[in-house]
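Hi X.,

You mentioned you wanted examples for the new student's onboarding notes, showing what a folding record looks like when two proteins sit in one file. Here is a clean example. The first protein comes first, with its sequence line followed by its structure tokens.
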Amino acid sequence: MLSPHDADAESSASTCCMQSDEDDEDVNHRVYPNWCSYRHTILRRGFRLDTCRDVKQLYQRYWEALASQGCSISKDSPGYLRACNGKSDDELCPDIGLPDNLFRGTRCLNGTSFVIKAVHLHSREYDVVRYLSSSPIREDPMNHCIPVLDLIEVPSDDLAFIVMEEWSSHLDTDPPHTLWGFLGIVRQHLEHIAFMHTHRIAHLDISVPNTLTDNTQGYACIDYETSRRFDAVNPRIRCLRTSEVPPEVERGECCDPYKIDVWSSGMLILRVSQLTGCQPPELQPFILRMLDEDPMRRPTAREALAIFDSTFRTANAQHKFDA
């Protein structure tokens, strides 16, 4: 007969084996739709996908702006040439820089740009995004995900489209240029991860490329393809595919998903520090706590946020963070 301790251990191991990247692979793989087939469905919701005409006009405006600044221009851009080679101006024109599960477009209501992503209707990603975008969750000031403009479901095809504001600047190509900008990124990121963990969601692919800015000191995590929302209080996972691989995942252990996020967040902060050159003396011990090889010794995301505040958020800097 199993002791209570052994029973708990067996239960945890069973949960661990159930939570893996191999689970439900038929609904969690990337979806590459025939965008032409859903063009009018998306348009009926007030969102127009980019056509060859749109792309050519975008390049023309860009070149005119460069010319007005006295810059030389070249009209051999692959994106422009693709638009020119379309069969007609009304033909859809995918962005050459995006994977086939993403498409750009314009909102009919106000002409603002958006990015739309196709996902399986029953995927973990769609479950997480739908939850984070629901009211009152989306209004929480700690929720730093890109605003979702609409969720368009096509149940007959087990398909859903996530329509998001276009935040085009990647953190690795447009890092902040001041210490306060750097610390602002760190705090917004820690807030969002602590917020997600409070709601039993783990991101599980935190990295520099998965962080965008809206160019107004707003930063957000993106790409919830590997994210999960858990029912269990203390979930465990294994077989994880992630950009920043913590030691316990490399060892093949049954892992605490939230401590994986903490480790990946430490790596994110380290890499952004290197990108920006912002390396205050208090930063290294803070990062090292998050990168402890033993996940049990790492702080939780909420603890990391509290440590950050007590270390960096001085009275003199208060207005910088609240601005």
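Then the second protein repeats the pattern, sequence line and then tokens:
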Amino acid sequence: MEMAFGVSKPVIFFMAHVTITFFFLVSGAARATAQVFSVDSYGGRGDGVRDDTQALAKAWAAACASPRPAVVLVPGAGKHYLLKQLTLSGPCKSTVTLMVKGTLVASPDMSSWNDENRRYWIVISGVDGLAVGGGGEIDGNGEGWWKNSCKINTALPCKGAPTALTFHSCNNLRVDGLKMVNSQQIHMSVEDCIGVQLAHLSITAPGTSPNTDGIHITRSRNVQVSDCTIKTGDDCISIEDGTHDLHVTRLVCGPGHGISIGSLGDDNSRAEVSGIFIDTVQLYGTTNGARIKTWQGGSGYANNIVFQNMLMNNVKNPIIIDQNYCDSAKPCKAQGSAVEVSNVVFKNIKGTTISENAINLNCSKNFPCYDIALQDINLKMVGGSGGTESTCQNAKWRKSGIVVPQPCTGKN
């Protein structure tokens, strides 16, 4: 068998502490001898009933302390490792690979999370050169959290649910060939990382599950996402403050809320996002397609952004910039400042929409969007039932090629 993230020859696994040879595609086919630390060798049962949190923590601690490249192995063969909240920390003495062959499943007991740790399930922090793969599954067991969400039960006070898998301050990170299902809230979060490759991920949750973003990226640079399929109840990819030089290619998205830059500038905060390149995306039944959303009262910028080669299928808001975003039960108070949105390209975007308003540029009066390019766009109503239109407020745009609908044909 091969590791999906770049093993060039078959690898045979034995028990923990057995030396095996991996061929990582790093700086050529560099050869490294790795030591395997199996969760089962540290008390893991994998029966889905008994708590395996400490078994994984001990296997990680041993691997992280290894002077040689190490592999933390979560065995497969139908095994389910029940985990409570867990943090796997670095720095490590050598490179570590987390090889998930079986399933990591979250404890169904919500009391395992208190107010201090309720926002996280599995956290990997401060590990450079980490590789994660193996084709296994990470199951957030989120149904109990969803029905207790204030977005489902409005009588409840709002409390955040855990993110299933968080990478924090992990540079030169590679994640390839994982399945993620039914996260309590966000499935995967990349925070404060530099040099990240995410590929061949399958992320799935019901379209009705609240706040279950697929991949959330914030305060990170030089991130590549490729060949992923994301079907959730919120953004397929959410791009937040501090994200720079992000490339997303060959993505299938839907159901969910589409690809979103933002929201930015909430609570009068400053946000900075630049160098975002979204290319070759198929969207199915999503609430939005290519979206930028910012709050009034914020500051900063979102610029140098490209959405191109996107195929929309029954998408409600295919192209939308909203500088008056307000996700609040109470109306948001109008404020003078805004996150500045500029140098945005929407190119070769085609398909069908369920909304007449296929292009919506809703920009700030005090900080208008500018340098917005619309090129080669063809968005039609589902089933050909009528024409589409677009609306513009405070937007400075230009078009090239054929653009359907014509920009700014609707009422402002």
